[in-house]
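Figure 2 data, in text form.
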Amino acid sequence: MVKILIASHNRGKLREFAAILPQLEADLATPADLGLTLDVVEEGATYAENARLKAVAFANAAGLLTLGDDSGLEVDALGGRPGLYSARYAGKGASDADRRAKLMQELRHTPEPRPARFRCAIAVAQPGGEAAVFEGTCEGQIILEERGDNGFGYDPIFFLPEYGRTLAELPSELKNRISHRARAAQAALPYLTRLLGRMEDKL
């Protein structure tokens, strides 16, 4: 079975990818599983560039097919912030809860519905090769109270009007169909399937 590296130290992402891409007959692993420590500077100007930077760096370091992703939350009332800086929005060492608290504080005087969207780019890289990038978006609104515990990051304050719930309140099987990461992964699936088929033929 082909091993695919997920270029992230966040095990939540590993679980999401495993749930989103069950059709792939592959063994998903994190850098920690391989004893790999690599700090990639996310200096790209877009999610796609950052995803590509991570995927290529980890693919070359591990010698494995690698998925790298970058995502962010864009709030219309904040001119698209925090965007690329979503993970660093509340400063170095801040927790997910700190970032949510900062965002809710910044939006406290903004009237509903506070439109926002999650964007995700997933790069698929082979060792020594180029990376193909696929993107997905999930539209919603920001609410000023946390709801739900089935998620991480900004999920508990990202409200989906069509479901009447936050992303963190959705059951996993639904979330893993409609989230920004799910949509990017679904876009990547045909490419990954062809790539894995060729790799299996060589084994």
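Caption note: The longest helix spans residues 180-202.
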